Amino acid sequence: MKNYEIIQLKPEDYQKCANIWDMEKRPEMAKSFYDQLVSGNRVIYVYTVGGEYIGEGSLVFEMNDPDYSIPGRRIYFSRLIVKENHRNQGIGGILVDYIVNKTIEMGYSEISIGVDKVNEIALRLYQHRGFTEIIFDGEDEAGPYYKLLRKLSGKSMIIDYSLLAEDYDLTRTANINIINLFAAEIPLDGKKILDFGCGTGNYANAIKKLTTADIYGVEPSENMREMALAKGLDIRPGDHANVPFEDAFFDFIFMTDVIHHVPDMNMMFSELYRTLKPGGLICILTESHRQLETRYWVKYFPTTVEVEKKRYPDISNIIDAAKTVELKEYKIVTTDMDSEITISDNFIRLVENKGYSMFRLIEEADYQKGLAALKRDFDNKTVLQTNHGETLLWIQKQQGDE
Q1: CA atoms 377, 380, 384, 390: torsion sign
Q2: Is 249 strand, coil or helix?
Q3: Phi and psi, residue 127, nearest 5°
Q4: Last residue in a domain, options 151, 179, 214
Q5: What separation, in Å, do the N-terminal and C-terminal C-alpha atoms of the chain show?
């Protein structure tokens, strides 16, 4: 998939959407959408590649139908369409995820949509994206349709990982100490293991080389999957709403620095519960809010702390989400320790590449100021005192659970 950009449409550019759908065949709809766009009741997001309009989707604030819109609470997702010769390439799913994230950013807790019953592809797409509650089952002049609802939870910070794939693989590697902690808790040899949100497959590849485990990965980013597949790994497209494996398949599921990218933890845990064997374990490698404050680079980039706290769920929030599907807290391990650190050239490179998402989310002036100070201390070989680590949250599916 080529590099893309999703833009918010301006009224003066509305006619460019004729590249996506035939406005002349549906003049009343075209005029209605335009009037809503001008009035501010409709926001249109357009998927573009090299300036070409490829797909679009809209949010409508007021629909005069409480099934579809409730002021301040529920917003209507309208008219998702992709240009015909670009369909079946994942563009619709990208637009849905983007628009749902925008809905969360706006502060809405629910998003609704109407779908024709005969449109099985669209129904599957929306159900996989969390539109699972049927609030109306009926028909109109166009035929039978559903009104679907998705209830939203969590916060969203959008980062395009397809565009980051190469830098990600260059600047992140598997931590052998973490793999040893996995192996200390559960023997890995011969087990069916899932690396959820595996990125470019660094951890999965290390486990494949070090053990006899059957290791699999799930990753939504096409570019990252391609890099993982090039390592000879079994990596499949999927996300928090769709883990493409049969029930009770895995002995062990882990995720490393992934949980803060998941827009709906309840949905994710439902899928992980389904694919995990009774007695199986999940390990979530993350950082608590306290640990976010103790990162040594906070000295250089203090504004990253609040950015990261908005992105990272705290440990108690993760446990509460797991409990919604009867997963049980098993144990919590932290790797905090006092240490002295000198800044490495690898870390300088990581920061320069903005290899951590937070560097793309703070103000550019704050980033540049911090980078300059970091480089000064690197040149001076400054020794930094730190007490920092990560948290491994272990969760178990109870024996006898189906």
Answers
A1: positive
A2: coil
A3: -65, -40
A4: 151
A5: 38
CA distance 244 to 242: 6
Give the list of residues 6+ apart from residue 344 with CB closer than 8 angstroms, or none.
Answer: none
Q: State CA 309 to chain mean position distance.
A: 16
CA distance 114 to 348: 49
In angstroms, the CA 340 to CA 356 distance is: 22
Angle between the N-to-C axes of helices 345-352 and 364-379, in degrees from 0 to 180, rounded to the nearest 10: 160
pLDDT exceeds cutoff 80 at 172: no
**CA-angle at 271, arms to 270 and 274, nearest 5°:** 85
Lowest mean pLDDT among 111-115, 149-153, 171-175, 251-255: 171-175
What is the C-alpha separation between 124 and 331, in angstroms, rounded? 36
Q: Domain count of the chain?
A: 2
- Dump pLDDT digits (tens) for 128-144: 777 889 999 999 988 99
Residue 330 token pair: 């098993």
pLDDT tens digits along 333-385: 888 777 788 898 888 988 998 877 788 889 999 999 999 999 999 999 999 98
Region 298-303: mean pLDDT is 96
Same domain? For 224 and 352 the reply is yes
Q: Are residues 132 and 204 in the same domain?
A: no
Backbone Cα Rg of the chain = 23
Contact 70, 110 (CB under 8 A): yes
Distance CA 392, CA 315 (A): 10
Is the pLDDT assigned to residue 177 strictly greater than 90? no
- Looking at the chain, the number of H-run helices and the number of E-run strands are 13, 16
